[in-house]
Amino acid sequence: MSVFAMAASLPGAVAAQDETLDADDINEEDVWIGQEVEISNLNSPADLSHDGDTVQNLRVNDRSATVDTSDLEEGRYFVKHGDNNSTGVFWVNEHNVNVDFEDSSVEQGDSTTLNYDDTSDQPRNDSDVEVHVTAELGNETVGQEDLESILPDGESVEDEDDTVAISNLSEDIAADFSEQDTGNYEFTVDVTDTTAEDTAEITVGEEPETDAQFDESTYEENVGDVAEFEIEHDGTDNLTVNMTDEEEFYTADIEITGVEGEDNVTVQYNTYEAGQGNSDEVVTVLDDEGEALDDSNVTVTEELENDENQLGEDERLLPGDYELEVFPGTADETEDETDAAVLLLEERSTGDMNTWALAGDDFDAADVDLEDVEDSAVSTDTVADEDRLVVGVEASGIYGYALDDDGNWVGDDTLKLKFEDTEEPRYGDADSFKLENISNDQVIVDEDEDRFFVVVDADEVVDEDDEEIDETWNVTFSVSETNDYVDDEETVETQFSVEEAFVELVGDQDEDDRFQIDNSNESELTAETNLAPGTDGDFRLRTTSEVYTSDAEIDGDGVLTTTFNLSGHEAGDEIQTLRVTAGDEPAHEAEGVFVSADGDDQPDKKDGFKLDASAPSEVNVDDNATLDVTVVNNNDEAGNATLEVTIGDEEYTEELELDTGESTTESFEFDTSEEGDVDWSVETGDDSDSGTLTVSDKVKGENGANGANGDNGANGGNGDNGANGGNGDNDEKNNGDDKQDDDETVPGFGVAVAIVALLGAAMLATRRQN
């Protein structure tokens, strides 16, 4: 593929590119329909053959003949000549090309490219191709002068008006519309030695009016910081910003190129680097995606009034008003500004210092960002050893030199942040560490609000043996007198303490130190801790038969709470274990006991839509089984309720409307086609129940009949009762005999036999009395 782009010189006149072949050396060469092919070293007579047929009789002159390919079909050809001589085969190919402009529309003053693509099955070498180009604007022919202006790589064609010739299409050729009329253009590109031809269309629109505007009329920043101002522009690829102080002592021209694809740009102006001769460090320009433009697109030229008053390395721009002007274009393109603004540079300052705490299990000190501090940090001067300590410093006029190009903290020799233990040891100095001992990842900069934060692990402040827990530390930030912006050292400080983390259950206890837990359906458990809000915790309550667990999160008051439904337990029942954990702290465990909930805490069981659910606990495969649910309205007025029923994987919902005291019963069938357990549950907004149906393939055999009573002896003792008949055998289809475990209850028909025996004994006693 070849592209019309940058200008290329064309030596000499343009000539057609015909093909020449040697009859003694033809070997699968390619020619294209429309070309005239000269074949040398032929003997007469000579005929052009294709598929065994003669397609042209060739006239041989001086042992050469010319083949006109204009009317030939694609395929393989050879020449028979002389006394049954034949040349090698050559190919005749159809030549196809496609041309189109890189841009379907341009504006006056713009340039673009015209793409040339050989789409033949057997493409030609672009360097061998020559084309003639003509053009029309509307229905009017584009004249020779305009055509050569649009296509500067083209040359005039002898005996052809309003046409340019372009050869060697492997070179890039430009299409320039900077001085052309508006409208719809159609260009015809004709390959000179083949039948290939194509057209390309482009629309030229009016050159738009150029404009550039500041997004504000006034900008404020502190000396030593980085000022920002946004420029919105239209109709221009380039911008120029001029900055001048109120004494016209300092001026800076900022030229920005290549912004045609951006809606706006943001200029970052480093007031610390200004006037120091490091123009590359003074300005950074961001595109509308916040990405920095390449340095080659930004040129900064600074000027001072005279050499005697140039700023030195220890002198910086002074506070004051700086006038801003913006021009749409470079200095060579425009003379008139389109907008103006003022940059107010103010004195720097050192403000307050504060401390916060962040949950240690949620945040890694090196990964905390500004949003985490603003949303999750809690102001405090005491931090648990498992948490993250955040120290915030209010300071302006330091961010032009304390940060790298990516906005990360790199510090400066004139800025000091020191942590020092207030507990003086018996020997040596108190423990301390400085900002330079901390990873830069642990410093968060909020330049917009003139503040920065340092995040440290609280357990790194204390020593490994916890000897410094519950001790107080001083934090000091200072700007030394060697700083370019202060005359005397400026200092701000604060204090914080590190405590050992704890978590403990709280609540009422009996004389045995057992926690008293209400047996209500919303029984609350509470614990207190000194860990930071947001730290995760959990509760665990275990009775003799059940275990309850729940997650919790520490709130802003250092409290964890949760609720359990403990209404199924009786007052006096013991709680084997109550346990709470938070963060990585060891759990606090205790014993407990259930107590009756206060009446105010218990909802009136008569109120609401109550339900009664019944279902068998066990059936055989394919037996009928039904879940019957009765719902009664115990409210003082009629109302609606939603009955939700789940049987296995099936869910049912019934909308009920009941008067006061009215009830209704709904039935739901179980699927008993397969052996297994089927869980079920029913629920209204006020009540719920659940259970399990076991479907089994075991069927019990019929009980055998009772044995007959033995005959009574004459006037003797009572005859022995016959033994009970054994259980009948299971049907052959059953898996085996049913067997019942021995226990102390009366099994099967034992009660009936016992009653018969008692009646017999009573009758015998009566006979004896008679």
TrEMBL record:
Keywords, ordered alphabetically: Membrane, Signal, Transmembrane, Transmembrane helix
Record domain DUF7827: where: 207-326
Any one GO CC term of the record: S-layer
TM spans (from-to): 746-765
Protein name, as recorded: PGF-CTERM sorting domain-containing protein
Compositional bias (Polar residues): 106-117
Keyword Membrane: yes
Annotated stretches, region: Disordered: 103-126, 594-614, 640-746
Start and end residues of each PGF-CTERM archaeal protein-sorting signal domain: 746-768
Bias kind Acidic residues: ranges: 647-660, 668-689
Annotated InterPro entries: DUF7827, PGF_CTERM
Keyword Zinc-finger part of the UniProt annotation: no
Extent of Gly residues compositional bias: 713-728
Skewed-composition ranges (Low complexity): 702-712
Superkingdom classification of source: Archaea
The species this protein was found in: Natronococcus jeotgali DSM 18795
